[in-house]
Amino acid sequence: MKKALSGPAEESGAVHKAGGGRLKIALAFPNTYYVGMSNLGFQFVYRQLNRAADVVCERVFLPDRSIAAEQNRTPLSSLESHQPLSSFSVIAFSVSFELDYLNILIMLRQGRIAPLQRERDSYAPLIIGGGVALFLNPEPLADIFDLIVIGEAEEVLEEVLTVLREERSGTRWIKPALKKFARIDGVYIPSAYQVTYHDNGTIKAVSPEKGFPARIRRRWVKDLNQVSACSCLNTPGTEFSSMTLIEVSRGCPRRCRFCAAGHVYRPYRIRSADTLQQELLAGPVAEQKIGLLGAAVADHPDLELLMRSIAERGGSVSISSLRGDALTDSLVRQLKESGHKTFTIAPETGSERLRRVLAKDLSNAQLFSAVEMLARSRVQYVKLYFLIGLPTEDKDDIEAIADLTRRVKHTYFKEARAEKWLNQITLSVGIFVPKPFTPFQWHPFADRAELKQRLTIISRGLRKEKKVTVTHEIPKWGYLQALLSRGDRRVSAFLIRALETGNTWSSVLKEVPLNPDFYVYRTRDFSETLPWDFIDHGIDREALWQEYRKALRTG
């Protein structure tokens, strides 16, 4: 069982500083300790802030309790010193997932802080948002945050701290005028922008106040060798229990049309083998599990060299997911010897046709070759990741998922020459949500009823298959994610209503006088101003549109 607060008492690496005159920053993760402490980016920010001598940064997480049980709770407090959230000058939220948006409001309320930006006075903490979910589309939380960081935090944090230092006066906290932050590239101040709408509900214009930029340019780290790569906290209370995490790369050299990370984290950047080994030398490696993280870990040119170096010093390696066409017998063998038990490959679709629509450059032959490598190394647990609800998807594509799974199992048995080595193949079926800054940002979310039928087809098709287990996401949560990831700032009304009433999302979506289907099921036209169009990720909008049209023609 996942225990949200089982780890803090046993963790190592936390920073404890006296407050005396320092700028107090609460680094907040809008989910439980278990989830938040598994996030490497969260740890990067924690370390960077605490490296400043005049800053004390403490962590805050969502308590692992229901909304109803929290109504009369004592104020939310920090993990390190148990200080109330409202006593901090700055509260910085690290936001990776749209389904955590409501948790942000819950945490502010539990901290006795008004969730809406316009209801907070100059003595309230400065509320900052960052993380990939927000630099894809910050608008559903535009009425909540004072500032939103667009891009990678390592590039922006010191500049934000400089403004805070310059504007401090005396010992009593007074929030700086938000315009003071407008000079920082990558900082978005939502209250300085007025959004107007056409009669049909689409956006007419986004107009900044004088002195604020019309477009917000994302910030990104150009040389990963110049920033820390390793986790700084170790705890048994997370998914990566007692594991040292290290980021080997950022972004992805592939250009899959469905993947937001592959677009907004461009260009693909790697840390050199020398840098990674120096990071590892700074801490104990012997008898340690080292988790290598990145969207395309297997594409790192020195991956096997790094793994051998870790193994020679008595450590072991874990990698969350592997590209099927990047596997080698040597790589599989090294991972197996490191104690790696489950190997995850993401075909995404059952048919090669639909993979071409996604620009997912993986053939069935390459997939079967990868499975043969797993069989030769007697890998016992194989996980296959698929998506449903994709553009141009039809019933044949869904049936192909079950068929491909059976062929994967047959390929394994044939290569291993026995069934006993394979314990389980797990299908993890995700729901596709069209994301901003991808070619599919104009495409509608699939119908929920149809998604349920497709899941039934997959489950029934594999029901009699031994050693095959099917898990899947729930369509209603995919619908909500689509609403929050593709909505404009009016969508915050759903979050506020959910906070005020504590009702189920099914009820909330009916209670707010705004049609959620407008954001979820509607196809956008190229001429429409999208809620996130004011952000400059260095991605050509026309090129994305041409990729979208090409994908539909491919289908």
Give a written overview of the molecule.
By secondary structure, the protein is of the alpha/beta class. The protein has two domains: 22-207, Rossmann fold (3-Layer(aba) Sandwich); 336-538, Transcription Regulator spoIIAA (2-Layer Sandwich), CATH 3.30.750.200. Helices cover 32% and strands 16% of the residues. It has helices at 33-36, 40-50, 101-110, 132-136, 157-167, 261-264, 273-281, 303-312, 329-337, 352-358, 364-376, 395-416, 448-461, 475-486, 492-501, 505-511, 517-520, 541-554, and strands spanning 23-29, 55-61, 90-94, 126-130, 147-149, 187-188, 193-197, 203-208, 216-217, 243-247, 249-250, 269-270, 289-293, 316-319, 342-348, 381-388, 424-431, 468-472, 535-536. The chain has a six-stranded mixed sheet. It has a four-stranded parallel sheet with strand order 15-16-17-18. Strand 17, helix 13 (448-461) and strand 18 (468-472) form a beta-alpha-beta unit. Helix 10 (352-358) packs antiparallel against helix 18. The longest helix is centred in the C-terminal third of the chain and has 22 residues, at 395-416. The two termini are 43 Å apart. Mean pLDDT is 92; it is low at 1-6.
Distance N terminus to C terminus?
43 Å
Q: What sort of overall outline do the alpha carbons produce when their principal axes are compared?
A: globular
* The top level CATH class name of the largest domain: Alpha Beta
Question: What Rg do the Cα atoms give?
Answer: 24 Å
Count of helical stretches: 18
Helix/strand-derived category reads alpha/beta
Give me the side-by-side strand order of the main sheet.
2-1-3-4-5-6
As an assembly, this protein is: single chain
Mean pLDDT: 92
Flag low-confidence runs.
1-6
Instruction: Give me the count of strands.
Output: 19
